[in-house]
Structure formats: structure tokens, C-alpha cells
Records
---
Amino acid sequence: MISSSSRLMLSTVAGALIGVVVATALAMAWDAAGHRDSDLHQRLHHAVPLDAQEQVTLDAKEKAFAERRAAIEGDLQMANGRLADAIARTPSWSPQVEAATRDVEKAAADLQRATLVHVFEMRAGLKPEHRAAYDAVLIEALRRGPR
């Protein structure tokens, strides 16, 4: 028979392991998303021939988005830490795990929303004759999904 202190210790270790697995999985997903972003970015640059003015405009928009994205990714990392802590404290579905999960979901949604705003800001920085090519690459990537 396992004592209650042994059960508590096993539960704590299990919770910590679950937290590490969740954090690792999310980190791998974000890393993969970065590669998809780079791939999409390359396809957009290949499909849309930018002139010097468009390049300057879009570079400024890219820099602003990189700063915004870094801030949101920091929020996501902190939310993942809170989730890991909640799981370590209570290695089961609990109000604390639920709240931490909602924080992770909010940060992920904030990143998605900021990315979409950025996509439309980039489009607005293009000449009208370049927007159809931009739209086509973007829509195809969204329909195809991650690969």
C-alpha cells in the first residue's frame, strides 16, 4: 500500500512532468509556426515584386510587428509557466488549471489577432496592383494549412 505522502510526491512529480511536456509541446508548435511564417514570407516576396518605396514601408511594418509579437510571445511564455505551476500544484483538471489554460488561450488568440492585423497592414502598404498577388498567396496558405 502506498502512503499518502508517497502519493503526494508521485502526484507532484507527475504534475511537473505534465507541465514540462505541455510547455515543450507548445514551444515546438511556436517554433514550427515561425518556420511557416518564414515560408509564407518568402512566398509572398517571390509573388509580389516590391519597389523601393514598398520595401521601406513594409520593413517599418515588419519591425513594429516583430516588437509586438515578441511582447505577446513573452505573455504566452509566462502563461505557460503559470499553467505548469498549476499542474505541478494540482495534477488534475482544477479551477487553477482551467484559469491558467484560459491565460494560455488568450495569449495565443492575441498573437493570432495581432498577426492578422499585421497581414492587413502589410497589404495596405502595397501598391493596388500588387495586392491581388499578395491576397492569392495568403489565401492559398490559409486554405492549405500547416505542413
---
Amino acid sequence: MKKIMLVFGTRPEAIKMAPLVKAFQQKKDKFETIVCVTGQHRKMLDQVLKLFNIRPDYDLNIMRQGQDLYDITARVLTGMRGVLQEAKPDIVLVHGDTTTSTASALAAFYQQIPVGHVEAGLRTHNIYSPWPEEMNTLLKQLDTELMSAGYETTPLAEQNSRKLVLITGHRRENFGDGFIQICRAIKTLAKQYAEVDFVYPMHLNPNVRKPIHEIFGNAYLPNLFFIEPLEYLPFVYLMEKSTLVLTDSGGIQEEAPGLGKPVLVMRDTTERPEALDAGTVKLVGTDYARIVTEVSYLLDDNTYYNRMSQAVNPYGDGTASQRIVQTIEKVI
């Protein structure tokens, strides 16, 4: 029986790896499924584990107050050494572009264990945007034997019928002036569109929360809601009820179009160019004026809105996990 180890550490990784964990667990006659989490995002990771009823076999529990990329990389790399020596998997599967996945892949390589990279192939071709994720992806390409690309080319909401703009933001490259510009734009839009609700589930990172407090202080806008991070299902529910999504997230660029929601991406580049080609997302960067202008277009112009909301979603048919399992059955 072959041992399959799946490693992840953040909420986005867990959301996308959970179906794959379940798919392997359904093949108990062929695979021993081993789940290792790093705890890179402790609280938000645990929410997803609870939702999908996944009990890790190993938990590195690396998260510390004030951790930086050096800390995360070092703790994952050294923690994975002992886990891999004990578990002796036949293959290690990692996901996406996180520091957890990069360090875990490197740890497996050091022990000559094959690595499979789920959601491989996403590129901006700019190593500083997204940072450090683009370089993380490139590094994994060097030590990965099997890559699975995501596509061929590589309660508030129910209270009334008002339009709703859902906002998320957490990218490292936007810390500082980028988030200040984003917050200024949100404040202007909330004042300009009193008939529209703006909802921002705030990331726990203090680099995200600090500019929010600086820009808004004790100011009260009745249509602007800063809320604590949501668990996954409530967030998807809110996304389904929204009019449009303003985000710097990678995963939401894939999920929101499946619900028919236009996505404005607060980044200068995206590793999902097929979404741009399909017309489901549009890059707006962190420029104050551009964010205000593009959100206004979608709120005011029905033709413009329908063009984005009705564009064909380029992201798969929901059977990726089964295909990955079938591929691994053939190669190990």
C-alpha cells in the first residue's frame, strides 16, 4: 500500500486540499492517507479542518507572534525533516504558492521523496508580484516531479435587497501605502454610494488592520461593515449574495466567477491570466482613483456589469481531485 502525504498550512490551501484528502481517503484499499499541517495560519486553518472534519496526523504548529518569512521557512523545513523520517511517504503533495508548500517540497527533496504540486503552473512572470508567492512557485517547479495545473492553459446579505460589495485584502506586496490607498478608496465609495453595503471581513494580520484603524478611526458610516474573518461556508454564502467582489486574493478569482460575480483584483499582476481573457476579473491595482472608478462602473452601468458577471468561468468542472488520484495511481 502506497503512502500519500498531503501538507498544507493556510486556509486557502486547506480549502483546496480538503477534497483531495477526502478522495484519497475513499481509496483505503490502495492508499494510506497522511495529513500534515504546519499551522502557518493557525486560527483560520483550524476553521477549515473542523468544517471538513479533517484530523491531521501531524501538526507542526509553527505560528508565532511576529513571525516572518525566515521564521516560517526555517520552522517548516526543520519540522518536516522529522515528520518525513517517521512517516516515510511514497509521495508528498503540496498546494499552490505558499511558504509552507515551498519549504515542505524542499524538505521532501532533501530526503529524495517525490513531490506532487497541486495548482501548479500559475505565473505572473514577475518575481516580486505576488511576493513571495511567485518565487515560491518557481522554486517548487525545480524539485517537483508531478504537477497538476488548475486549467488547461495553466446573514447580512439577507436583510434586504441592497447591492453589496464584498472586500478582502491581505497581500504582503500591498502592505503600507497600498493598503492606505485601498482604505481611502473604500471610504470614498461608501460615502458616494449610501444605498450600497460594503462588507470587509478583516484578515488577522496587523499589517492589514493598522491602516484600517488609521483611515477610519472612530468614523461611522452606516453602510460600511468591518467584520471579523468568516469561516469558509459563511464567506461563500456572503460571496453568493454580493453584487461584486473587490479583492487581492488568488482563490477568489476562481471562486467568485463560478457564482457569477465580477471580480476587481487589487494587484498589478495576476497568475490567472485566463480569467482576464475570459472577462471574469479585471486588474485595478491599489491606485485610489482606479479602484473608485472601476467599482463605480460596475455599480452604475448594467451593461458593463452583465458583461463581466455573465462571462464564461474558465476554471474546470469540479472533478480535479478525482483526476489527481487517478494520475497518482498510475505513477507510483
---
Amino acid sequence: MICFCSCHILYSCDITYCFLTQDVKEKNAAKAKLRRLCEDKAKHGEAPKLQVPAWLHKEWKQRDHLEMAMEYRDCGFDKEKFIKLRERTVTNEENHKSTVAVGWYSKEDMLKVLHWNAKKIAGAVKICEQDPLHLIRTEKGNCEYGGEEEYYVTTRETGALEQNRLKKDERKEITKDDSEEPMPEVKLDRLNKDKQRLLASQSSAAMRSKEIFTKHCDSVLQKTAKLRSLQSDLAKHYDNTDEVVRKSIKALDMDIGKLDDSYNKLTEVMAEGERDDYAGGCLGSKPCAKAVQNEAKIRPWNAKRHFKKIAKQEQD
């Protein structure tokens, strides 16, 4: 019911307020209490006078007032409870990404090509025997060379650790004593915009560096697998007592060793890049450049063509 007083004329805004629901009135009252709590009490020209920490005052200016007012109301308009609720905690989440190199190898290949000891070979065979359908080429035709059983084993596994910072709704920040007068805020809008543009350009450059790094690592891994396969073919199809064959296998073994060293250096620098978000462009480092140079010198298809040519001359 609306009561009109004979000595006052109600303005349109007053009439509108009379028709507001109880819920809206409570929300407006909560927003008013929040404003009185978070606003700066200092007069013009005076140092800031705050009843809450500086970070909460800044958050109140930037965030939705209604949302914060409802939280303040849920705390029973208790200042300490509200400040504690508005705190956030920062946690770390770790992700481990790994790259795995696998292939088909017989027991003899594991010994001569991979240079595994007897204990490691026995362990690999035992694991493969647990799933023979997918991990063993049997003598019934699945094996490509000579009916010898081959096992699908992992020859290398490398990885990089990533840390992602996750922000929750609850935050805990170290603040100065509330009794100390906070420093007046300085507006640096232009500086913030320049900083955002710089971060955006660095993010784009970091993504490009990461893509290039991944391609280099994959290339080295593929060439290593091709050279191992070529070495295995030479050991199976040619006489190991022949001087040319032995020298060829030894040369391949040296090339594989160089590629292994290159891959290790690449993964080390890549792990540093993951840790530092590829800041500064880690592709310019000397270890990485040397690794890429060694990898580029070795051409598996050239090596294979060269050994085929030698084998043909020996047959003639």
C-alpha cells in the first residue's frame, strides 16, 4: 500500500522504489554496505584510508559489485569472514609428456643392434609374451625375415615436465599490515597496454619455437629408427665376416651414436624451453645448433644406396 503525504510530492524515482520487490531491496542494501566497507574514506588531497586490504579494494573496483555483495551478505556482513572468503590459493599442476620410440627386434637384434644385456633382453621378451598377439611376430608368417620371432619393444622414452598454474576462487595473498597506509595507486594504462602487446608477441614466438623444436626431435628420432633398421638388414642379409660389411655396420653404429647424442641434447634444451615457456628463443643455443647440424649430415637413404652399390660390386 502506497501512502501519499499531503505536504510532500513523491518523485517518480520514489514511486519506483516503492514497487521494488523485497529481494531487490535486500540486494541494493547489501551493495550499499559493501560500498561503505570497500570505498576509500579519504577526502580530496588526503592519503587513502581503507578498512580492507588494498588488493580487496582494487578487486571491488574491478569486479561485479552484486556478486561480491551477495558473498558479503552470506558472511553475515562480517568483515573478517568476508576478507578470508575473498582470498585465493594458487596451486601447481604437473603434466608429463613423453616421446616413445618403438620397433620390431629379434633377440639377436637386441644384443647386436640395441646393445642390450641379457637381463634386459629377457625382461623385454617376458613383457611381450604377456600379449603375444600384438607384441610378437610369430613363425606363422607375420615375421618378415627368415621366420625368426621378433618382439615389439620400446627403444627410447624421453619426456618434458610442464607446470601449469591454476587459480581457484579462494586466494591467499601476502599483504602488508592494515595499519600501514597503502601507497596511492598510479595509473599506468599506456604501460599496461605496451606490456600486453609484448606478452602477446612473446607468446606467438614461443609457440613457433616449440613447433620447430618438436619437428627437429621427431626428425632425429625417425632417422635413428631408419639407421637401426638398415643396420639390422645388413646384419641379416650379408656375411658378417666380410670386411666391407663389418665396416659398414660399424659406420652405421657410429652414426646412430651421433644421432643419439644429438637427440639427448635436443631434449635437454627442449626441457629448458618448456620450463621457461621458450622465452628468448632457445633455438639459438650452441648445443641445439650442433645437434641439428649433426642430424642434417646423416642421410639414411644415401647410406642405404651406398651399401647396396657396394654389395652389388661384391657380387660381381
---
Amino acid sequence: MLLILLLSSLIILVLYYLSVLFMDNKNIVEDGKKEFECGFRAENLSRLPFSMQFFSIALVFLIFDVELIIILPYIFNFNHMYMFSIMMILLYLGTLLEWMEGSLDWYY
């Protein structure tokens, strides 16, 4: 077991040092100046083009996905219908609160 661990660690280190040896260093700086998938042109290294509206909507969707994962087992088990009803009411109230607060509005 120890021999396998040492052999795999040695292979990883050899591959790492080979990649560092053959790496072209001049392309590293140029890659940081290219456009990303979002289309923003990077003027400097700070992360200024960050949208808080996108973050809040992504966070709301993440919370709703987790709640959906919690709710799904109760859909098939009708003995716990009161728990399903409570979770659905909480999900509805959370959506209503986000909507009334204006967090779901998208501003340009």
C-alpha cells in the first residue's frame, strides 16, 4: 500500500515538473488580458465588472433548488402531507418576499 502511494506521488511530481519545464511563460500574461465568456474586456486585474443583481438571483435560485431537493421525497410519501404543505408555504412566502423586496427585478 505504501509502495503504491509513493509510486503515484512520484509520477505526479515528475509530470508536474515536466509541465513546468515545457511551459511557455510569455502566454501567461497575455491570457489575462483576453475577454472571458461574459464578454467583459479586462482593463485591470480587479474584479469590478461584477453584477450584484446576478449574484442575488443566482443565490435565490440556489436556495430554491435546495428547497426543491428537500421537498421531492415528501411528494411521494402522503403520510407526511403536512410537512409538504409547510415547505410549500415557506417556498411561496420566500418568493413573495423576494418579489416584494425587489430582489428579483433586473436593472440594466
